[in-house]
Amino acid sequence: MSGHVGNLSLQQQEALNKFRLRFTNILPPEELDDDYFLLRWLRARDFNLQKSEEMLKKNCRFRKEWKIDRLVAEDNVPELWRTYYPGDYIGYDKDEAPIFLLNIGKFDVKGVFLSMKADEITKHALAVAEKGMQLCERQSKKLGKRIEGVTVIEDMAGMPMTGFYKPAIAHFTKVLGMFEDNYPEFMKHAFIINADHLQILEQYVDKDFIPKALGGNLTDENGDPHCSAIVGSGGNVPRSLYRSELIKESARPLDDYSSVVIARGDSLKLNYNIETSGALLKWEFKTDYYNIGFGVIKVFRNDDGSEENYEVIPVIRRNCQIVIEEGSYLCEDPGTYILHFDNSFSWITSKKLYYIIEVLPPDEAVPNNFDIELNNSLSDKPIVNENGE
């Protein structure tokens, strides 16, 4: 196949050589010398050197900010996610690539979103991708051939006719964009199972790695045809675990907050110049009646003097009209950070925002858990008012 190792045109080989030189002082040696790795980024941008370079540099930044290399190693998965997320890797397809099974019909999307921070959900979704990459690498070493992608099976059995919880769609769209930008060609095959499927699935996956519930032979240690002991059982999250039931309102009087009205279609950007590595940005905010977007942007200064904004915490809607939003971001690098309150999505309603922002010096900002280190301590409830306001 053109554009792959062993089948490069002269122009593609020249692009690969130039691409490698541009990352001489950026990538670790094992990636710099890996043609398979470099070509994934070139193919993703049709061998356009400038666009491929921008994509990979953003990925380097993404890996640093999300501490990607530690996601799987730390295995810091909350019990709620382990219990109610019904997805995991179950075996290998006929090309020896990992198979990921998601029993999406058993996934209580609404319950999980009401019980976990959206940034935490993002972190665990990225950990799924990282685990897949590690399995591919392990298979490549074991087999002596390159395995570059995974096969995904999504079992829709039991999916309610109403479909996904609507407020989660915007977040999953954001996560999907992160996957496309940072894991090119990661998904080798995808099968959405909701109709006659076995004949097609067997072309790519041996029956021994197809769950019995889908017509294959695979069960878990308990004989469950859905393989719940392998991928998780899913099911409805108890309301007692919803964040609205667990988070208490702040005891601070309203006079402690600064306030501002953000006009419809407008936004508020608060700039903070962090001079010391290890400072902690902390925030607490709420609105009167409606949700508002919020995220944290880091300003990068390139070698040519230009500036580039990067969302270290994605700007998505926060239901701070229900529960006060509290969170923090550990600033590992000095520079400019922007707290972005976004009302651009609302063409009708202005929002009154109450907020407290603090910058703590390093000696007062020692992280006490992995979530803070991953900048995921921002509480984020899904949008309850589905009218978009």
TrEMBL record:
<dbReference type="Pfam" id="PF13897">
    <property type="entry name" value="GOLD_2"/>
</dbReference>
<dbReference type="InterPro" id="IPR011074">
    <property type="entry name" value="CRAL/TRIO_N_dom"/>
</dbReference>
<dbReference type="InterPro" id="IPR036865">
    <property type="entry name" value="CRAL-TRIO_dom_sf"/>
</dbReference>
<feature type="domain" description="CRAL-TRIO">
    <location>
        <begin position="77"/>
        <end position="214"/>
    </location>
</feature>
<feature type="domain" description="GOLD">
    <location>
        <begin position="244"/>
        <end position="359"/>
    </location>
</feature>
<dbReference type="Pfam" id="PF00650">
    <property type="entry name" value="CRAL_TRIO"/>
</dbReference>
<dbReference type="InterPro" id="IPR036273">
    <property type="entry name" value="CRAL/TRIO_N_dom_sf"/>
</dbReference>
<dbReference type="InterPro" id="IPR009038">
    <property type="entry name" value="GOLD_dom"/>
</dbReference>
<dbReference type="InterPro" id="IPR036598">
    <property type="entry name" value="GOLD_dom_sf"/>
</dbReference>
<dbReference type="GO" id="GO:0005737">
    <property type="term" value="C:cytoplasm"/>
</dbReference>
<dbReference type="InterPro" id="IPR001251">
    <property type="entry name" value="CRAL-TRIO_dom"/>
</dbReference>
<dbReference type="Pfam" id="PF03765">
    <property type="entry name" value="CRAL_TRIO_N"/>
</dbReference>
<protein>
    <recommendedName>
        <fullName>CRAL-TRIO domain-containing protein</fullName>
    </recommendedName>
</protein>
<dbReference type="InterPro" id="IPR051064">
    <property type="entry name" value="SEC14/CRAL-TRIO_domain"/>
</dbReference>
